[in-house]
Amino acid sequence: MRYPPLLLSVALLAPASYADIQFNGFLSAVGGVATDEPIRGYEKDATFKNDTLFGLQASADISDKLSMTGQLVSRGENDYATDLSWGYIAYEVTSSFRVRMGKFRTPFYFSSDFLEVGYAYPGIAPSDEVYSVQFDNIEGIDLFYNTSLFDTVNLDVQAYYGSVSTDFVLGDTGQAIDTETRNHVGLVTTFGLGDFALRLSAHNATLSVKNFLDIAIPALKGATMNEFFDAAIAATQGQGFDDIVAGIRTEISDIEETRATFVSAGLKYDGEYVFGVVEGTNLTYDKGPSAEQRRYLATAGVNIGSASIFTTFSRADDVYVDLAKPINLTLTPQFAEQAAVLDGISELLGVTSDTITFGIRYDFEPGAALKIQYDSVSTPDPANPNDDITNGLLRFGVDLVF
Amino acid sequence: MKPLFRKALTGLIFASSFAVSLCYADIVVIGHPSVTAQNLTSDDIREIFLDKSAKLSKKKKSELVLLELDSKAATIFFKDVMRMTPSKFKSHWSKQIFTGKGKAPTYIANPQELIDYVASTPYAVGLVDTGNDSIDGGTQQILLDGVRTLYTVKK
Questions:
Q1: Which of A96, A119, A363 lies closest to B58 in CB terms?
Q2: Which of A1, A282, B64, B119 has the smallest set of CB atoms within 10 Å of its CB?
């Protein structure tokens, strides 16, 4: 949906009706080139669209305790379609206890809340491996409580309940799947001591994916999984394999409704001269064909005056579900082709990749940063799974906040 | 107490406070009279300016006011108390603002306006330089009227 008229009318009406509306914005203008093969939305010739975005936030105090915040973001990767990233009302019960209702950021990661505000972190974009869960925003209610332990440790606790409905883009297929979470709950605790912060979070939801078996996948050269199973059943009719085929089909269709659990842990140091972050996440499903996602990252950097230099290593080391397991290829070698397709489906539902990043940030004035970042991405070679293919991505850009 | 004595004492207190604020061009952190916290350390001040402290008031978050980031007072304040560059401060605040956790600090160039603002805004905390050498080349003294001094950055 596009909202420019709304945005415009808010901007025009604001000064007349309310004195106390705060406008803040952020902008990232980023260009990039894939130094080898096309990767992460970039190609061999420089393009400037994928990470370029513009966001505008308006907040207004309705009373001493009640406020509203709305954030509109236009992203290059969505052809600059503007969407309402946030829109919530907040009630400050006390200075340390706040209740929000509406649409807000799902607090999966350390940097979830400011995921799109490039200016708030050293790199051009957060780690592709770790910051990968697509349910960025949630609609619901959250409680936020802040207290001090022993007068030294700062403790933030956030608990939320809500639901997400989104179009999930599946791997390289480019196909959007209608996906929902229900009874989506989470608890986040952050301990702060001086320049250190420790963050622990746990989240749980019923995840449903609509008509998953109707997706056309590369392993089937564009045919859908349902077509594959219908053909497999027809081909093996009367051979006594019906149960095996039906069992695998059920396992895949279990993706249509399952409980999903996400946990994360992170430790951050943000000192005057050096900074570092380690963060690990784990996503598991009660049943179904999706891989268990195990993702990690480690960043270290130094601040030199107005510049920062940093390096990040991040890894996706997912544990795939072996859908072809019920097929015993030594006994039934004639099903090798079907087994390969099932492997293809499993692979689509997980990621194996390592990225090594080097980056420089230079704050040329308060509120504006110039950045250059190089990512070296290693993924398994599809032709020879024991080998890796490494591709480079060079990005540069400017991040602003105002 | 005898009225005369009380008068003299009040006069003395008034005169001494007047003298103190008149004699030095201090870089100080001031607060609205509703901010009653005492004996704040530089670490407390740092946490307040990073929006990490609930020390000042349980009722409402403090509103922060600073002199412009390129002013002499801000330069000293960021080096000695905040131990970070103004850019880092701005980056930190962009997180607070865009997570809806905090209200952005206000920047005011004129120290007198800043003091007046803090004096008239409940729970406001501000960084100010009581010496204003921008007018007529000389240093003009500014009175800390209607505000509390929470921390002295530099005398």
A1: A96
A2: A1
Q: Which residues does residue A101 pair with via DSSP β-bridges, in sequence order?
A: A89, A141
**Dihedral class, residue A81 (left if φ above 0, else alpha if ψ from -120 to 50, else beta):** beta
Euclidean distance between CA atoms B119 and B130, whole angstroms: 15
In chain B, the residue whose alpha carbon lies closest to the alpha carbon of A70 is B100
Residues of chain A contacting residue B97, judged by C-beta atoms under 8 Å apart: 24, 57, 401
DSSP per residue, A259-300: EEEEEEEEEEEE-SSEEEEEEEEEEEESSSSPPBEEEEEEEE
Judged by CB atoms closer than 8 Å, whether chains meet at B100 and A88 is answered as yes
- CA proximity to B44, closest of B81, B77, B73: B81
State whether A92 and B60 contact (CB < 8 Å).
yes
ipTM here: 0.72
Which residues of A fall within a CB distance of 8 Å from B90? 119, 366-367, 401
- The residue type found at B134 is S
Average pLDDT over chain B reads: 76
Q: Is A363 close to B84, i.e. CB distance below 8 A?
A: no
Q: Pick the residue of B98, B99, B123 with the most A CBs within 10 A to test the interface with A by mutation.
A: B98
Q: Where are the domains of chain A?
A: 4-401
Question: pLDDT at position B8, please?
Answer: 59
Parallel, antiparallel or unpaired: strands A258-270 and A53-61:
unpaired
Q: Report the share of chain A in percent with pLDDT over 90.
A: 53
Tens digits of per-residue pLDDT, B92-110? 888 888 877 777 888 888 8
Report the chain B residue with the minimal C-alpha distance to residue A105.
Answer: B99
- Whether B100 and A59 lie within 8 Å, measured CB to CB: yes
Rounded to whole angstroms, the Cα distance separating A296 from A282 reads 9
CB pairs under 8 A between A and B: 86
DSSP A116: T
Task: Put residue A151 in one of left, alpha, beta given phi > 0 → left and psi -120 to 50 → alpha.
Answer: left
Q: Per-residue confidence at B18, pLDDT binned at 50, 70, 90?
A: very low
Q: Which of B155, B151, B154, B131 is nearest to B80 (CA)?
A: B154
Q: Domain map of chain B by residue range?
A: 25-154
CATH of domain B25-154: 3.40.190.10
Any idea which residue has 């203008």 for tokens?
Answer: A29
User: Quick check: helix, strand or coil at residue A245?
Assistant: helix
Q: In residues, how long is chain A?
A: 402
* A310-368 pLDDT per residue, tens: 999 999 999 999 888 888 877 777 788 888 888 888 888 899 999 999 999 999 987 89
* Three-state secondary structure call for residue A33: strand
In sequence order, the 6+-apart residues with CB closer than 8 A to the CB of A217 are A173, A223, A224, A225, A344, A345, A348
Strand partners, B140: B132
Residues with Cβ < 8 Å from A183, sequence gap 6 or more? A161, A163, A204, A205, A206
CATH code of A4-401, in short, is 2.40.160.10
Residue A336 tokens, joined? 């090798």
